[in-house]
Amino acid sequence: MLISDKLYGDFEIEKVLEELIKSKPIQRLKGIHQGGASYLVNKNWNVTRYEHSIGVMLLIRKLGGSMEEQIAGLLHDVSHTAFSHVVDFVLDKHHENYHEVIFLSVIKNSEIPSILEKYQYDYKELLMDDTKWTILEQPAPELCADRVDYTIRDMYTYGKISLKEVEKFLENVLMVEGKMCLSNVDAAEWFVTTYYKEVIDFFMHPLNIYGYDQLTKILKVALANNIIKFSDFLREDRELIFKISKSKNGEIQELWHKLQSSLKVIEDEEDFDIHLKNKVRLIDPSIFYQNKLVSASSLSKKIEEVNKNAFQKAKKGTYVKVIQA
Questions:
Q1: Contact (Cβ atoms closer than 8 angstroms) between residue 187 and residue 57
Q2: Buried/exposed code over 9-40 (b: 16+ C-beta within 10 A; e: otherwise)
Q3: Would the pTM of this model clear 0.85, i.e. be above it?
Q4: Contacts 24+ apart (CB under 8 A), 307-315
Q5: pLDDT per residue over 49-72, tens digit each?
Q6: 94 pLDDT higher than 80
Q7: Do residues 142 and 285 make contact, with C-beta atoms less than 8 angstroms apart?
Q8: Is the peptide bond before 141 cis (omega within 30 degrees of 0)?
Q9: What is the pLDDT of residues 134-188, one digit of tens each?
């Protein structure tokens, strides 16, 4: 099977990866938008969990990761619900980790274990402990394939960075002690700047915050009135949208109309309708400097300052004023 990715190029992949990609759990991710409510308020914010999952697998492969780690990378987001992290706001889960809580249950109740067994892999051995996959996942503020892919994929797709910049960055990624790091300060400063375009300028964009807040209200009302069931979250975005849009519930119809209408929003700390805080996400990549790993912020005042500002912004949250079009 030939896989073509806009960031990493073309790859011929093995049968086990091909079968997993063609499985229902992975194919479902084509209908799960990475940004949750984002595409409902801006149709151009449309990266899917499928694109990201394929990307993570290929980035791990590009960096020399084992077949086992590539499989773990491909499957790491398979339990994301419809509208991705919006479900965490519906459940008031501030760590935004509901997909992690249900991960093994989703895997176990799918065809994935039998596909893996066919190729002599044990799903429990591969997926129960992701700390062994040091390319795939690292605690913040370090680099990892998951964090790098969603950042550069979103920012490239949304026109904030160029493919040439992505390629130059990837040329400066090193593997040291089984972990991703960078070869120089310039690469680190570029990625840190790009990362905050993602988590501050995009995740915390007033229109994005409005979409999350409005969709969260809609889903809570829909659940309370049995218009949707919680099990529906393991379907695709469009299936929940269909149930919501066809509902005769007056409160839902009013909320849905507001979400779909061309409202304008601005950020206003003094006069606001919505105040929302996202999970605090910070980045401080390791640099291989003088034959040892050191934090980028220890070598760059720019990164130190940008991180300080990003932390303050994330802790404060976004204050949104809704303006009628």
A1: no
A2: eebebeebbebbbebebbebbeebbbbbbbbb
A3: yes
A4: 307/141, 307/192, 307/282, 307/283, 310/196, 310/199, 310/200, 310/282, 311/280, 311/282, 313/200, 313/204, 314/199, 314/200, 314/204, 314/277, 314/278, 314/280, 314/281, 314/282, 315/277, 315/280
A5: 999 999 999 999 999 999 999 999
A6: no
A7: yes
A8: yes
A9: 999 999 999 999 999 999 999 999 999 999 999 999 999 999 989 999 999 999 9
3-state DSSP assignment of residue 225:
coil
Q: 158: which 2 tokens?
A: 């949304």
- Entry field: residues in the chain: 325
pLDDT in tens, 220-247: 999 999 999 999 999 999 999 999 999 9
Q: How many CB atoms lie within 10 A of CB 139?
A: 7
DSSP per-residue string spanning 307-318: HHHHHHHHHH-E
Please, what is the angle between helix 206-224 and helix 250-260, to 10°?
160
Q: Which two tokens stand for residue 225?
A: 């009135």
Query: pLDDT at residue 324 above 90?
Result: no
**How far apart are alpha carbons 273 and 117 in whole angstroms?**
52
**Cα R_g (the chain), whole angstroms:** 20
Task: Please give the helix or strand (H or E) that residue 89 lies within, else none.
Answer: helix 86-90
Of the candidates 286, 56, 48, which has an alpha carbon nearest to the alpha carbon of residue 148? 56
Burial class of residue 153, CB neighbours in 10 A (0-12, 13-18, 19+):
buried
